Fold:
Amino acid sequence: MLRKFVLSAGRKIRKLARAGRLRSQKLFSREVPGEAAVAPAIVLGAIETESPIVPVSQPEPPREGVARKTRTQQRQTARPEEKAAWTLDAFEVDSVAGQSRFHDFDLPLTIMHGIADLGFRYCTPIQEKALPEVLAGHDLIGKANTGTGKSAVFLIAILARLLRGPEKRGATQAPRALIIAPTRELVMQIAKDGKDLAKYTGLQITAVYGGVDYQSQMEELRRKKTDVIVATPGRLLDFVGKNVVVLEHCEIMVIDEADRMLDMGFIPDVRRIIGRTPKKELRQTLLFSATVSEDVKHLASQWCVQPRLVEGEVEQVTVDTVDQLVYLVTTEEKYTILYNLIQQKADERIIVFANMKNEARRLSERLQRNGIACALLSGEVAQAKRMSRLENFRSGKVKVLVATDVAGRGIHIEGISHVVNYTLPYEPEDYVHRIGRTGRAGAAGTSVSFACEEGAFYLPSIEEFIGRKLDCVVPDESLLRPPPKGTTVIKTSAPPQQAKRPEARRRRPKAAAGSRREG
Structure:
């Protein structure tokens, strides 16, 4: 038994010697002559045995630095290449007289990286005027319409302050900034823009709005830590009432489209929300509105501390970048002109506005019967469907969108060539909001309005509001060709209602023979 052990040990020694020889050959690239040698006897107790002959190499000592250099080269080859850190040199923007760059402001590098990805080179008028004030920590009243870049003002201000200021909330889930907007579409758009800007900052932005699953939204807020909440007033108040959202550590409060908040009756809810935030002396408050009426100024005096007033001259910008056409028509001619206009601009993206949701639904159904694929966006459409229809319009799967003012307020989609006012709005501000869907960021756009027997009465107030006269023209003959009869059946934007199955008459169960009473 001991002999077997000794033989096994000898075999292992031979393997080790052979492995050492091969390794030395690879390291020094020289042939090592094999010499027969007798291994020393292994003596274990009283038994002595000789191991078989094993070739042993005697390499000469390596030259100093040879092996070390080889190992260093191997480590450099195996190490993956590290990605170079992003710098402002990768985002060069030339200085232009009369225009401000984002480089001109002292913004964190991570925010500038997000701005570079979005392709923002020069500031819009509202950004140029408002950014210095909000970055300095002042309260602000911004007179600006949607589509002028006002969202970037408060988003950049929020991100910069949160990155530079100390975090005072500790380990709580409480947000450090709050943005309130009147519609779900606007909330989703602001949250999307915020996530794009905060891509490299590590800050978390969460959208809170109604029309989606309540439980899943509540669980998401409880599960993860969020830095910025963008919300509609109603759903936010629900979560505040259940202590799902705590606002006591809110450092920045933004109220977007304050005039629309007034019109929609949200101000009582906004007051309750602001009552849960720190005192106005301990927070920065930014208020944006398309119009700064006396009511808006009164709200600002209650919620802000010595606010700066900044005007972006949004009405004039909108007028200058949009070609506005007003057709003198009868009520019966409106659909004919709309149909032919869409046919002539088949490759363009068009939004059609109507005042009432019932009118918008009928118009959408009539267009579909004429073979025009369109999407309907109104208050009676479920939120999940509204999101999918907006995405189809954004991606170009659907070229025509029929919307009401409330639903269309938050539409921020590039490349919309035409806006059609199928019915002129009751309020002049809504006219500016509508045509602001096109001609965005200085691009050219066209608005078409129908001045019928009723709509013509709204023109004077619109002209007074925008500060210019609108020329009314007679539509071209090509726009008055009668549309075909609506016989095409295509997939509608709303699911068809299933016909109710006739209820079957209930049959009386037959009584058991033994249970009948005999009279």
User: Anything to note?
Assistant: The CA atoms of residues 227 and 250 lie 9 Å apart. DSSP finds 18 helices and 16 strands in the chain. Residues 2-28 form the longest helix (27 residues). Residues 28-57, 489-519 have pLDDT under 50 and may be disordered.
